[in-house]
Amino acid sequence: MTQPDPDRVDRDRVPPDLAAPGGGPGEGDGDGEQEWWADPSMPWQTKPTRADLACLVAMSVLGLYSLAMIPLRPVLLTSAPFLLAGLGYGAGLAYVGALAATGSPWWPLVWVTGTLFSLAIASVYYWAGRLWGRRIVDVWSSAKSPRTQRRWDRAWDVTHRFAIPATLVSFLPLPLPMNIILVAVGAAGVRFRTFAPVAAFGALAVKGGWLALGYWIGEPAVTVVETYAWVLWIISVVLLVAMLVSYFWRQRTQGAGPAS
């Protein structure tokens, strides 16, 4: 008898034709109102389990964290480089590597913590792929341009064919949709006991590479990183303001609506 895979939440999905009014999973208690979880912007198609909700909360926290780090990253790069390095950011690791060349002994600690933090983030996206498969990517891409959708489709297809190499590539500082790659790895059926060591090796190697780069450049890297932090801070503030202006403009436009 075949045993169920303990790494995967395996649930029967209700076919779309059963979701029609009068008996579908999206209906309320006979009053015609749709359940909150049946919203098409949600990554699931049936009533969510605890695993669904936990993963959604984790991804929401990651989204808020990423947004908060836009203005904080350049500030931390000069004021708290060890904290930034411990969060896995390459610039912070390079800075710590340069400080190691001048005698700082703390680089092994930030190497380990930076690796673990990056691995934790990657695991959340992998988990989303295991739970929801392609559905989560379709939700993300619904508001994107056709060009972005085509780019994500290519990343998805390649990752499904080369899941293990793609896991390693996802940690490299490349202009690739890393979250899409990691979701695709999970959706491809890669078990966690396979994903975890591969991802850990990739994160450890890349974080170590940043440290080695800073150490190799040495003390001049400190000046370079400080200048980079100043430029990055200006760019981050401009981007954050642009994002906020764009958001409030869309809210105002949608709120106005067409004239009756």
UniProtKB/TrEMBL annotation:
Residue ranges with Basic and acidic residues bias: 1-15
Keyword Cytoplasm: no
Region Disordered, residue ranges: 1-41
UniProt keyword annotations, A-Z: Cell membrane, Membrane, Transmembrane, Transmembrane helix
Annotated membrane topology: Multi-pass membrane protein
Record InterPro entries: DedA_domain
Family: Belongs to the DedA family.
Record protein name field: TVP38/TMEM64 family membrane protein
Organism classification: Bacteria, Bacillati, Actinomycetota, Actinomycetes, Propionibacteriales
